[in-house]
């Protein structure tokens, strides 16, 4: 658990400097936004380290996870993959190409007309994502255990409401 008394951090020092230099401005938003940004940077690095242990990048993990979450037969169209991941449609083709070369996914024509495509997990792809996701969840638990369950629940509720204002 984090101690109740925490020494001033980088954000607090920046706020103090801005308060000194621009006392007419309210710099309190930096306290939330700056810390949220710093926490996100740290979390990204911690998450990417686990993906890398499985030979994956963040986007690769996201695509494989979206296929695995689809259920049997573990396939989606490239458009559906873009809707179910954090990967842009522009980056999807390159990512699928790389995953296909690695033997983690296959592509096949969709339907009778052959115009559309479907992307599916291979058996190896399913094994990789199942292992990576198990480690990912253990990592997320480790990271979240740095705060109390009550704080985690409050933070989730706050972030859910805040995210809804953007999405």
Automatic annotation (TrEMBL):
<dbReference type="InterPro" id="IPR000835">
    <property type="entry name" value="HTH_MarR-typ"/>
</dbReference>
<protein>
    <submittedName>
        <fullName>Transcriptional regulator</fullName>
    </submittedName>
</protein>
<dbReference type="InterPro" id="IPR039422">
    <property type="entry name" value="MarR/SlyA-like"/>
</dbReference>
<dbReference type="InterPro" id="IPR036388">
    <property type="entry name" value="WH-like_DNA-bd_sf"/>
</dbReference>
<feature type="domain" description="HTH marR-type">
    <location>
        <begin position="29"/>
        <end position="164"/>
    </location>
</feature>
<dbReference type="GO" id="GO:0003700">
    <property type="term" value="F:DNA-binding transcription factor activity"/>
</dbReference>
<dbReference type="Pfam" id="PF12802">
    <property type="entry name" value="MarR_2"/>
</dbReference>
<dbReference type="GO" id="GO:0006950">
    <property type="term" value="P:response to stress"/>
</dbReference>
<dbReference type="InterPro" id="IPR036390">
    <property type="entry name" value="WH_DNA-bd_sf"/>
</dbReference>
